[in-house]
Amino acid sequence: MNATMEKLQPPQGPKGSLLGGNLMAYRNDPLGFLTGLQKDYGGVAKIRFGPQTMYVIYDPALLKEVLITKQENFIKLKGFQEARLFVGDGLATSEGEKHKRMRRTMQPHFTRAHIQTYAKQMAQIVRSELDTWKLDQERMITDDISNITFSIIAKTLFSLDGNDHSRAIREPYELINRMCSERMRSLMAVPLFISTAKNRAYKDALQALDSAVYSIIQQRRLNPEQGNGDLLSVLLTAKDENGAGMSDRELRDELMIMFIAGHETSANALSWAFSYILQQPEVELKLYEEWDRVLRGKDPSDADYMQLTYTQNVLWEAMRLRSPSFFTGRSATADVEIGHFTVKKGQSILFSPYAMHQNPEYFPDPLSFIPERFENDFVKRIPQFAYIPFGGGPRGCIGSHFAMLEMVITLCMIGERYRLRLVPGQLPIEMEPLMTLRPKNGIKVILREH
Description:
By secondary structure, the chain is α+β, with helices and mostly antiparallel strands. It contains 17 helices and 12 strands. The chain has helices at residues 3-8, 23-28, 30-41, 60-69, 84-87, 96-106, 112-116, 119-130, 141-158, 162-184, 197-222, 231-237, 248-277, 281-294, 309-321, 353-356, 400-417, and strands spanning 44-49, 52-57, 74-76, 138-140, 328-332, 336-338, 341-343, 348-351, 418-422, 431-433, 437-439, 444-449. The protein is globular.
């Protein structure tokens, strides 16, 4: 059979069980399942989760059709409806005109020019956190980084002190994150109206999360002058095409996704970057050389960002190997031709940045951590959508520039102040795929003198 005929064959995939299809294989090892499909079936694989047929795309050209050229035929993956229980119907989950309207409303706060104005606040927040650390102290660096990224979101976008709200939002989210991931991978999750111990804990956590966010909205409605033109002020004054403002529920949904998605993904990416730096002295040495040359002991500013190229490449490579958003997808709203096959209405497309970023065709020696691969405009020399740490198309991450600036500033400032060393005897750092991909059990370090 020639290559052309092979390419035109309908997508193939593992058979799976009669009832669950391939769901159990995915549940047992999500990351291994997704990378295995790429190795075994190439650019696209056909799978089934229960009665639901899905196509897992690894070919950048096919993915471009889904995300760009034929994106009007798709909505966010139906399977993510579970996540809507706590993130609501905000920018990341809404569809159609509502999504376009909210993106237009928020976009000015995420332009490169506007994000540069946040750099000083970002550095102040990191410095404040580092001032509480002590030499030779053992710390759970994953928790510390999460504190920093949460505080940055709270301060820059909502003019809030992150310490005042961190526990009230992050603690219930931790429980929801695990339980929601479990429910999304179940063939038949127990409906929430059935009073089981797990469901009660889940609903209690949702209520606590809601209470914390509604309290922020109420305080700002009573004291609008506190906003000083921040994103929350913009949302509070936004009007739809009929001149109506946003309800508390709509505001809650937007804040929820910004707080949770905005800090969680950046924290995970930074944590993974440190996990590699801690185990590769040559990478650490090159970072110190760049920081000494560019920063000369001062805090990084927005003006320094473009010169910190190796620091950026370390982060790009960490997100290649450990993409925080390890899989996502779309559901078809009509029959649509993608490449050489038809996706029927109601069927879904999955794609996994984690798996796609391990394709040796675009990333030689794909399992090795090599920041240098991103030199010389590497991303421009590979197909569009071969590397997608922030997604792509009209629904690509609105906060990608924000995230890169805060991660560069945080990485530089921690590294300039301390040398981190893994706590002796720590278990190997494993991956935990929940709503995002995080280091399982965290990363414990000892703070040594720079």
